[in-house]
Write a structure and sequence with these properties.
The protein is mostly helical. Helix content is 82%, strand content 0%. It contains 7 helices and no strands. The protein has helices at 3-30, 34-40, 53-73, 81-103, 107-131, 133-159, 161-164. Helix 1 runs antiparallel to helix 3 (53-73) and helix 4 (81-103) runs antiparallel to helix 5. The radius of gyration is 17 Å and the shape is elongated.
């Protein structure tokens, strides 16, 4: 085994994590003032504290990167094109949500975006699961959190029509 092939899986894992954290960073760029903005909105009683979002999303993006890496390890990009196409699209749709909600105050479009994201995550779970059950399982917390976030998005949009109209 060459040194290059020995470190290839580790470099691939780092690459997948970097890709996921890059998507996170693009979304976070729109949400620089998110904590203040979130605090100013009328919120449902079940809305979590603003500080919770950062740690949860960090964990979820880490799970996404590991899941993609697990699928990559079984057949690479070529043999898993549909799964990775959906994965990349959902990363883009995920990053777009922060811009729609926090930067552009478009509650309705953010809600449409997050519902589309939910569908893409569900498809991604199925496609990843077919390759690696662990990869599919790692996306389940992401699906559950985005389901919750969808309800929160809808509630906040309805409670704040003048701001998120």
């Amino acid at each position: 085994m060459t040194t290059q092939s020995k470190y290839r899986p580790i470099l691939a894992l780092v690459g997948w994590l970097v890709l996921c954290y890059l998507a996170s960073g693009i979304g976070a760029a729109a949400a620089v003032q998110a904590s203040d903005f979130y605090g100013e909105l009328i919120q449902p009683t079940w809305a979590p504290a603003a500080w919770l979002f950062g740690p949860v999303w960090t964990l979820l993006y880490t799970f996404m990167g590991i899941a993609a890496w697990l699928v990559w390890r079984v057949g690479g990009l070529q043999n898993n094109r549909p799964a990775f196409a959906v994965f990349l699209v959902q990363l883009i749709i995920n990053a777009l949500w922060s811009w729609l909600f926090f930067a552009w105050y478009l509650g309705a479009l953010a809600f449409v975006d997050i519902v589309l994201l939910l569908v893409l995550i569900a498809v991604n779970i199925v496609l990843f699961w077919r390759v690696s059950a662990w990869a599919g399982l790692l996306l389940v917390p992401y699906f559950l959190w985005v389901s919750f976030a969808s309800a929160l998005n809808f509630a906040m949009w309805q409670l704040n029509p003048l701001i998120l109209g």
